[in-house]
Amino acid sequence: MRFLDEYREYDSVQRMAKEIHRIATHPWTIMEVCGGQTYTIVKSGLQELLPKGITLVHGPGCPVCVTPVAMIDRAVATASLPQVILCSFGDMLRVPGSAQSLLDAKALGADVRIVYSPLDALQLARLHPQREIVFFAVGFETTAPANAMAVWQAAREKLTNFSMLVSHVLVPPAMEAVLASPDCRVQAFLAAGHACMVTGYHEYLSISSTYLVPIVVTGFEPLDLLQGILMLVEQLESGRNEVENQYTRAVQQAGNTHAQQRVSEVFEVTDRVWRGIGNIASSGLRLRAAYRDFDAEFRFGLILEEAEESRECIAGLVLQGMRRPYDCPAFGTRCTPDTPLGAPMVSSEGACAAYFHFGRRKEDEPSLVSLASPCH
Q1: Which InterPro entries match (predicted)?
Q2: Average pLDDT by consecutive 10-residue portion of the chain (376 residues)?
Q3: Residue 134 bridge partners (DSSP)
Q4: Residue 254 near residue 61 (C-beta atoms within 8 A)
Q5: Alpha carbon distances (Å) from 34 to 110, 151, 325
Q6: CA quadruple 262, 264, 269, 273: dihedral, nearest 10
Q7: Rounded CA gap, 134 and 138, in Å?
């Protein structure tokens, strides 16, 4: 397939890996901030191609994985209301809440439907004016434009039976939260190319200069990631801290300004709780007051008991790059894709699910506990 197969070509991958071996003289710890990148790294065994001193750790880059328990509980409670049709992307249905998942609610009679776009939910609102259509809006900056457009269109059509349960999160504040941790050992970042297609990468300039870390915007194929790693190692070895763009075929520094304008019109920045991590200031989006009629939290006003995470799950440490999935005692036994204790075992982009499906073992990779290098 054009523009895809060439980024998986075996000989090119080997040449890129050899170049990383050639220039790397020190141990470095690099974090990728995208679940899709984590999936490729684990599936392709990229860690095994790198020098022993280059360690890849997996960050909080899977939106399914970081959606908090309380928001899952709110989605379940909303779906269980009479007249509600709750629409969601399929990978959200099995994410466990404090007591139920959306799939459990569906089995008990709730009208929960899988859609492929918020515009599908908008069409349901047109077809079923007597029902309340709620779209569960999750994701990073990547999915925000489509969700903003759906709300904008609903307002334009004066659809009174359409609303969104919003749990949008933003990448840069999460990166800063990782770097600000006293236990941080991350020295460089592979930034998520699809998010940067929307936002550009100007926001990363201040992070790089403040924390003295190089950042490379990277794609999702093996060669994309290896080239991104090579660019980071070149910076680290030469003492540079810059923002560079490997994903030039899709990302421009300014991003998609039309998409940004629509998102800014409909959403505003807010604090957001990340599953397993906690509250991160200014790390999410919520609907602006002008669009409050389309806010499902405001519309239904549900008051729920405070939700608790599974005490057995160490997803928070995995999402911050402090532990590997197999460091969890429940990994692969009490926690599997069929019986997940935490969200990273649900999504295909979750680190735990990737490690489970592709058989990553402790002896295959460097230990995170033994890392001694500080992040800045």
Answers
A1: Hyd_form_HypD (IPR002780), HypD_1 (IPR042243), HypD_2_sf (IPR042244)
A2: 67 92 96 91 92 92 86 95 96 90 96 96 97 96 96 97 97 93 92 95 96 96 95 98 96 96 98 88 97 96 76 83 88 90 84 85 58 45
A3: 86, 163
A4: no
A5: 32, 26, 16
A6: 10
A7: 13
Closest residue by Cα to residue 32 from 198, 194, 146, 144 = 194
Integer Cα distance of 40 and 243 in angstroms: 22
**Dist CA 343 CA 142 (whole Å):** 20
- Name the pTM for this structure: 0.89
CA dihedral of 324, 329, 333, 339, whole degrees rounded to 10? -80
What are phi and psi for residue 73, nearest 5 degrees?
-60, -40
Domain locations in the chain?
A: 1-23+67-315
CA-CA distance, 52 to 202, in Å (whole number)? 32
Cα distances (angstroms) measured from residue 280 to each of 39, 46, 96, 111, 285: 25, 31, 22, 32, 12
Q: CA 246 to CA 220: how far, in whole Å?
A: 11
